[in-house]
Amino acid sequence: MVNPGKPADSWAASFIRRHPDLGLVQVEVEAIAPDDLRRLITDALARWWDSTPYEAVLGVEAVERDWLSRLAEDPEP
Fold first, then answer.
1. CA 33 to chain centre
2. Which of 69, 73, 51 is nearest to 61 (CA)?
3. Staple 24 to which of 5, 20, 31, 66, CB 3.0 to 4.6 Å?
4. Cα-Cα-Cα-Cα dihedral of 40, 44, 47, 48, to 10°?
5. Structural contact between residues 15 and 24, judged by C-beta atoms closer than 8 angstroms
6. What does the alpha-carbon distance between residue 27 and residue 3 come to, in Å, rounded to a whole number?
7. Which parts of the chain register pLDDT below 50?
8. What is the pLDDT of residue 7?
9. pTM
């Protein structure tokens, strides 16, 4: 939901300077369904997202998770 912004808010002047084409607005994101909000954020970031480092980190996490699982099962090597 988009509502008129509050000029007295401390962030108002900065927002208007950075986004003169939007005017002063406030958006209540809690009114957006979680799946819709996730899609909006994902779509907005897609052009800057490089999945290569992300996938590499997921791979390292999987190896570490496996190692920790094995260590928890048999702490004595």
1. 15
2. 69
3. 5
4. -120
5. yes
6. 6
7. none
8. 77
9. 0.44
Q: What is the pLDDT of residue 43?
A: 94
User: At 26, is the secondary structure helix, strand, or coil?
Assistant: strand
Q: How high is the pLDDT of residue 54?
A: 93
CA-to-CA separations, 24 to 7, 41, 43, in angstroms, rounded: 7, 21, 24
Assigned token pair, 52: 């290569």
Show the tokens assigned to 50. 């490089």
Q: What's the token pair of residue 71? A: 């260590």
Beta-carbon contacts of 15 under 8 Å, excluding residues fewer than 6 positions away, are 5, 22, 24
Domain total in the chain: 1
Residues pairing with 9 in the sheet: none
Domain that holds residue 43: 2-73
